[in-house]
């Protein structure tokens, strides 16, 4: 792993106060990197906070500075698109603990050296606290909506539970109120792959020629399998070989699906930090919205008042299933919160929220237009 993942100068603010963390510690000198799209109305009442997923970043609808690829939700955010920047001011912040400009393990600690594994343990609620502090700096008191998919949906639900006065609407897509044992198990496989790589060096690899690139690639490969559906993998790859005549019965990438996963893993190491992966996956595993509020999920939304919720699941998503989403719906119903829910059909599995699903476009546009 290279010593830095941010050779550009991201747009960022320094929070004016230390950030309190769920661990009981405070994180000082916190920087939050962010991007905005569309103009903030004079009344400051058209702001939407977009929350990114585990390996996402703030470059929602602009070219990624490291990969040169389009933003991760460019199809959803822009002029005339479902999240229409002719109408809305969209803010997306890189979560703390990540590696695209916000304070994380690669950032300099008080002694000037990278935090590495000295970085404090963080939670989803800590990420949301940092986003709320960013909104304060930007002068945005109340959001028109907070929107997120996957880990971004966790942040959206957490903001509604912990800062209910700060948003009028919540759109959670392909998400959950807590991680299952299976979710945690898949993440632990990835973490162990990183830590077993000699290049990890106990997390102290910044400034070195290399890092735990092989371990991080394996972690990405394992996680990527969970983002896809079995039907989608079968349809795209099946058991097709790269070159049937050259089949060697060895350990090269004979099958197309093997080559695809290896490409996903290797390309990931060019833009993401291994220690950030450890910290963020752990934050996701700790997430349990019910436990944060006395053990009853409905109590998490007791202060939601008139906040409107829209929850979306996909029929092929086995990572965060429709049953997971219905649990949140039942909790919202228990406190009489206004909530709509839809399960959409899509062949892509968990990644459906990032891909071309026209029905999702209609749901998003409709919810924001109500």
TrEMBL record:
Catalytic reactions of this protein: L-homoserine + acetyl-CoA = O-acetyl-L-homoserine + CoA
GO MF annotations in UniProt: homoserine O-acetyltransferase activity
Active site per database record: 150 (nucleophile), 317, 350
The AB hydrolase-1 domain, residue ranges: 46-291
List of residues binding substrate: 220, 351
Region (Disordered): 1-20
InterPro entries documented for this protein: AB_hydrolase_1, AB_hydrolase_fold, HAT_MetX-like
Presence of keyword Acyltransferase: yes
Involved pathway(s): Amino-acid biosynthesis; L-methionine biosynthesis via de novo pathway; O-acetyl-L-homoserine from L-homoserine: step 1/1
Biological process annotations from GO: homoserine metabolic process; methionine biosynthetic process
UniProt-listed Enzyme Commission number(s): 2.3.1.31
Localization annotation: Cytoplasm
Keywords associated with the record: Acyltransferase, Amino-acid biosynthesis, Cytoplasm, Methionine biosynthesis, Transferase
Keyword Cell membrane: no
Assembly mode: Homodimer.
UniProt function note: Transfers an acetyl group from acetyl-CoA to L-homoserine, forming acetyl-L-homoserine.
Assigned protein family: Belongs to the AB hydrolase superfamily. MetX family.
Name this protein carries in UniProt: Homoserine O-acetyltransferase
Organism encoding this protein: Aurantiacibacter spongiae
Higher taxonomy: Bacteria, Pseudomonadati, Pseudomonadota, Alphaproteobacteria, Sphingomonadales
Gene name linked to the record: metXA
């Amino acid at each position: 792993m290279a010593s830095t993942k941010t050779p550009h100068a991201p747009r960022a603010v320094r929070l004016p106060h230390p950030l309190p963390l769920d661990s009981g510690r405070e994180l000082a000198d916190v920087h939050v990197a962010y991007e905005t799209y569309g103009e903030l109305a004079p009344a400051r009442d058209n702001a939407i906070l977009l929350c990114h997923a585990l390996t996402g970043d703030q470059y929602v609808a602009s070219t990624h500075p490291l990969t040169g690829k389009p933003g991760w939700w460019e199809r959803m955010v822009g002029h005339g698109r479902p999240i229409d920047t002719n109408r809305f001011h969209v803010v997306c912040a890189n979560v703390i603990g990540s590696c695209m400009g916000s304070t994380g393990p690669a950032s300099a600690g008080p002694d000037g050296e990278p935090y590495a594994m000295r970085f404090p343990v963080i939670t989803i609620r800590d990420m949301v606290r940092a986003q709320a502090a960013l909104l304060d700096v930007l002068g945005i008191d109340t959001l028109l909506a907070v929107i997120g998919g996957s880990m971004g949906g966790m942040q959206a639900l957490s903001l509604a539970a912990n800062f209910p006065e700060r948003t009028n609407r919540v759109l959670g897509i392909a998400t959950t109120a807590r991680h299952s044992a299976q979710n945690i198990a898949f993440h632990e496989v990835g973490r162990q792959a990183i830590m077993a790589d000699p290049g990890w060096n106990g997390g102290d690899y910044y400034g070195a020629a290399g890092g735990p690139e092989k371990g991080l690639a394996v972690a990405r490969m394992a996680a990527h399998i969970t983002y896809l559906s079995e039907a989608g993998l079968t349809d795209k790859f099946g058991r097709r070989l790269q070159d049937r005549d050259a089949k060697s019965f060895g350990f090269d990438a004979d099958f197309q699906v093997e080559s695809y996963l290896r490409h996903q893993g290797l390309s990931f190491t060019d833009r993401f930090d291994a220690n950030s992966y450890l910290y963020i996956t752990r934050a996701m595993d700790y997430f349990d919205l019910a436990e944060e509020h006395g053990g009853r999920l409905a109590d998490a939304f007791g202060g939601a008042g008139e906040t409107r919720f829209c929850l979306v699941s996909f029929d092929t998503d086995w990572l965060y299933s429709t049953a997971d989403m219905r649990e949140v719906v039942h909790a919202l119903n228990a406190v009489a919160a206004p909530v709509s829910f839809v399960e959409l059909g899509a062949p892509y599995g968990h990644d459906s929220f990032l891909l071309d699903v026209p029905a999702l476009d209609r749901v998003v546009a409709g919810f924001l237009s109500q």
